[in-house]
């Protein structure tokens, strides 16, 4: 005995999609997310962690310098101690930490929204929502790239000024006393963690953009109704009325 076919409902764009299981007799609710979107959510969860780590590490570093931004800063010797003689504008660190934090918050909210929607409302992202997601992902890639470059070159500039003071490396400068006391606690480790998290975050957002483009391409596939000459049409009609006899 053959199982009954699922009814396929055409949507507004003319593309057929399976009707929700709850609408079928005796059906149970199920997640409407495709496997591509589920993979996308996994990358969003990882991007949230990376963005939060980058924002927290840079904020902690700026706080250890009493609110001054050490990126692109210049260090100087004061006796046997180090001091940040020329820090950068605080807005530079605010931008990097703010961009990373906002993108992390966006990932978290989006993750919670789709988990709730798939489990409770059984919703589906339409073409307009997908275009908006593509635009946001492109902006996110730009912001993360700029933030990662600022962290990379800003930390390198600070380390060059420290090494010019006959200090072996930035990691060794963490063990050197700074003025005022308590300044620059684990500054290089925090900056290194922020930079690494930003580069990983950039890769994650690029993968998310690729997944969204694949979904957009699949959604944009034009619908073509079946015609009599199509093999699928013939197989469907043969299953309903039986194969036609050829006339010699």
Write structural notes for this entry.
The structure is a single chain. The protein has 248 residues and is mostly helical. Strand 3 and strand 4 form a beta hairpin. The longest helix is centred in the middle third of the chain and has 37 residues. It is elongated and about 65 Å long. Keywords: Membrane, Transmembrane, Transmembrane helix. One of its GO terms (cellular component) is nucleolus. This is Transmembrane protein 179B.
Question: Gist?
Answer:
This protein is mainly alpha-helical and 248 residues long.
Task: List its traits.
248 residues; mainly alpha; two-stranded antiparallel ribbon; 4 strands; 10% strand; disordered N terminus
SSE topology:
Layout: E1 8-10, E2 16-18, H1 35-64, E3 69-78, E4 81-88, H2 90-121, H3 127-163, H4 170-173, H5 187-219, H6 231-241
Distance between the termini: 35 Å
Shape: elongated
Could you give the order of strands across the largest sheet? 1-2
Q: What is the average per-residue confidence, as pLDDT, rounded to a whole number?
A: 80
Q: How can the largest sheet be summarized?
A: 2 strands, antiparallel
Estimated share of beta-strand residues: 5-15%
**How many separate structural domains?**
1
Proportion in helices? 55-70%
Q: SSE order, as H and E?
A: EEHEEHHHHH
Low-confidence stretches: 1-31
How many H/I helices?
A: 6
The number of strands is: 4
| SS-based class | mainly alpha
Radius of gyration (CA) equals 28 Å
